[in-house]
Design brief:
single chain, alpha+beta, Peptide Deformylase, 5-stranded antiparallel β-sheet, two-stranded antiparallel sheet, 3 helices, 28% strand, globular
């Protein structure tokens, strides 16, 4: 397992539509291990493979880190790897969460999404599974599936706010390039 570098906006790879996984093999399992390692190191609660430069339909999530046990304050790990995830149902009622993204460091905005979703995916054994997600898990899964389709959470906010974010990160990227970082 290894921590991989994150792809940061305005990198155009974040706009790629990821390719489906044909077969779950050792390469895919290794990718998932690296994704969890990278996600926990960041730290984050979700990661799409494209965020580490691999445009394949794989996401990892673990909202257990956020939902710590109230009694002892211990974070519970609940890692979930979803291969070729697709939303097959969503609620009409919506919820709003302040979202952030490892590929857009230190920027957060309120995003409205369906409050509950049903997702079909393959697990690490190549078995087709379905999961019903609500609350933070539903938001996280939708956010990561968006990445697989080249969509960022800032695409769900106003054009004015999105343009400001892109301008800021484009400037930072140019400064890093100029400084040879």
């Amino acid at each position: 397992m290894s921590v991989r570098p994150l792809v940061i906006i305005p990198d155009s790879r974040l706009r790629l539509v990821s390719d489906p996984i044909v077969r779950v093999d050792a390469k895919v399992r290794s990718l998932v291990e690296d994704m969890f390692e990278t996600m926990y190191d960041a730290p984050g609660i979700g990661l799409a493979a494209v965020q580490i430069g691999v445009p394949e339909r794989v996401i990892t999530v673990d909202v257990g880190q956020r939902e710590s046990d109230e009694e002892d304050g211990e974070a519970r790990k609940n890692p979930i790897a979803l291969i070729n995830p697709e939303i097959i149902g969503e609620s009409e009622d919506l919820s709003v969460y302040s979202e952030g993204c490892l590929s857009i460091p230190e920027y957060y905005a309120d995003v409205e999404r369906p409050a509950r979703v049903r997702v079909r995916y393959m697990d690490l054994d190549g078995e087709t599974r379905e999961i019903d997600a609500e609350g933070l898990l539903a938001t996280c899964v939708q956010h990561e599936i968006d990445h697989l389709n080249g969509v960022l959470f800032i695409d769900h906010i106003s054009k004015l706010k999105r343009d400001r974010v892109m301008k800021k990160f484009t400037k930072i990227a140019k400064e890093k390039e100029r400084d040879g970082a």
